[in-house]
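example protein:
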Amino acid sequence: MILKTFGWSFGVTAMGLAAAFYFWGWEGFAVVAILSVLEISLSFDNAVVNAGVLKKMNAFWQRIFLTIGILIAVFGMRLVFPVAIVSVTAGVGPIDAVQLALDDPDQYEQMVTDAHPSIAAFGGMFLLMIFLNFIFQERDVHWLGPLERPLARLGRIDAFSVGVALAALLLTASTVATHAYQHGGTYSDESSTVLLSGIAGLLTYLVVGGLSGFFENKLEEDEEREEAKAEEAAEEAKAAGQQPTVVGLAGRAAFFLFLYLEVLDASFSFDGVIGAFAITNHIFWMALGLGIGAMYVRSITIYLVREGTLDDYRYLEHGAHYAIGALATMLLVSIRWHLPEWVTGGVGVALIGLSFWSSVRANRADAAARRENDSSDESAIPSGV
């Protein structure tokens, strides 16, 4: 089962890491490996969400999502989108950006470095909104309870996360402006770029979230209609003496479900792509690392759908979002101060690893408590009964 589901992912991983080592040595190998782990971890909750919604579809639409959907996810968001970001921010065409990276890596790196403030501001704000909307949301499971509970209460204030994000953007822009002024520049040089790019990142998040909400509402409406039809069909089958069958969503309902999942996957892809810029500007390393990670997201989705169960690691989603928050902070900080790649990559992986270990410990504690309760119940039964 594992080999059948994850076989393609294992193969792509081996080829991708081998190619990274062959062309760029151990540095390329290490960065691609870090990006792969980061993408898998940040998109893990995406796979869980996909599996929970995908199981409602019929077999045809499941195949559509797992084939066309993965092509969009891997080649569209993980491969084309990073090039598009460089193209827009550096002011060159997409083909020119790739050609420049191949022919003149030094000039390409300089162009990306010059465009870094706009990339970091856009991506930092987008990622920060993902983290803030998670941390300010009330939930049943808490990883860091003393921190998360009061923050969830603050989240009851309307648009509180947007206000915090804008405050962080203003602080970043003012820091950049002060630094520019002290070094002979003007307040309007780099700070205006940071402000415009940061607001664009915020608006992008709001638009993507709005589209997701729209498709989710359409999905709920269509699901209600499909459930009513299914109940009528079941009653008719029962009246005719036939066994009622369970059929996955199809037609208009499945189409809206497919669109909803694509928008949702795109929003999750943003954090991986933007987070990759916090680790490296090398588009080929990003393409390999994010492509490998996207393959595992597909495999995990298939595994969860086929098994009919969701993951038991309760704090992994928390760790992924804390990693997103750390990446957002480091992106905004990197506009003013340079951060080593091992720091930006290591912090996220460490947070996710810590959340995974905390989940394992919690599961073991629950299992031990159940065994203790079972043994106490057995001892309470009188002998001879």
Notes: The chain is about 85% helix and 0% strand. The first helix runs from residue 2 to 42. Residues 330 and 344 are 7 Å apart (CA to CA).
